[in-house]
UniProtKB/TrEMBL annotation:
Keyword ATP-binding: yes
EC number, UniProt record: 3.6.3.-
Keywords: ATP-binding, Hydrolase, Nucleotide-binding, Transport
PANTHER family: METAL TRANSPORT SYSTEM ATP-BINDING PROTEIN TM_0124-RELATED
Source organism of this protein record: Candidatus Nitrosocosmicus franklandianus
Gene (name only): znuC
Protein's recorded name: High-affinity zinc uptake system ATP-binding protein ZnuC
Organismal lineage: Archaea, Nitrososphaerota, Nitrososphaeria, Nitrososphaerales, Nitrososphaeraceae
Length: 246
């Protein structure tokens, strides 16, 4: 099997009600190993795009392809994807421990018996260590700070060591220290070869320090290194303050 080279999105469109496109004509290529921050206003379709990349939604039009270094393998190739949803969408009253949340990420349609065996326990320990949460296995998820909870959900995505890690606003609502911890963890994972794609409202601390930024509002408005892309002209177009359509 050839190796994964890039994620290629062409002419991608999707919506929730007939003829009303939430995202439209998205073209974007993300090479393996890239660290990408997607910025755009609330309601611009970032979450929708990320869910399409994960396969949670089916495109109305266009293609999402994970390309290998030869065409034949690309047809069959499905990278493993880790998804970290927006923290506000999680029900914190659900009675579950840190260990159980992370274990959920290792279960799939193939495993009917989702109990936590010794091997999985050790893998969870390793993931918690990477996340700076060593010894937190038995803690109830409610008994953690916002930053710690976010890291646990990152752990759930990491337990299968995905090729591509997709995160929806991973630092929203976190204080400076928690935000920096998450950013450092993501940079380390990326330095070790993981492709990281995240959405963020934090232009100053996250997007500005990401190697690659995509300005998004229904479609891609600009992309490139932050020093080239995060300019007034692009931000005005992205945040709907200037009329623009390529
Ligand atoms: N399940 C749904 N059913 C109907 N409309 C939806 C659904 N999910 C999202 N939308 C609508 O699609 C549009 C894009 O939403 P989306 O969550 O993708 O935006 P976003 O850029 O991620 O916003 P935010 O930054 O606030 O999270 C919004 O107008 C939203 O109301």
């Amino acid at each position: 099997m050839g190796s994964f080279e890039c994620l290629r999105i062409t002419g991608l469109s999707y919506g929730f009600s007939y003829h009303d496109f939430v995202i439209e004509g998205v073209n974007l290529t993300i090479p393996k190993g890239r660290f990408v921050s997607i910025v755009g206003p609330s309601g611009s379709g970032k979450t929708t795009l990320l869910k399409l990349l994960c396969g949670i939604y089916e495109p109305w039009n266009g293609d999402i392809e994970y390309i290998c270094n030869n065409d034949r393998d690309s047809i069959f190739y499905h990278p493993s994807i880790g998804y970290v949803p927006q923290i506000e969408t999680i029900d914190w009253n659900f009675p579950v421990s840190v260990q159980e949340v992370i274990a959920m990420g290792s279960w799939n349609y193939k495993s009917y018996l989702p109990w936590i065996d010794k091997k999985l326990k050790n893998q969870i320990k390793d993931v918690l260590r990477i996340l700076g949460l060593g010894g937190y296995e038995k803690r109830h998820i409610r008994a953690l700070s916002g930053g710690e909870q976010q890291r646990v959900f990152l752990g759930r995505a990491l337990i299968r060591n995905p090729d591509v890690l997709i995160l929806d606003e991973p630092t929203t609502g976190l204080d400076y220290v928690s935000r920096e911890k998450i950013f450092d963890i993501l940079k380390n994972l990326n330095n070790n070869g993981m492709t990281v794609i995240l959405s963020t409202h934090d232009i100053t601390h996250i997007a500005n320090r990401s190697p690659w930024v995509v300005c998004f509002n229904k479609y891609v408005i600009a992309e490139g290194p932050p020093q080239d892309v995060l300019k007034e002209e692009n931000l005005l177009k992205t945040y709907g303050l200037a009329d623009y359509r390529p």
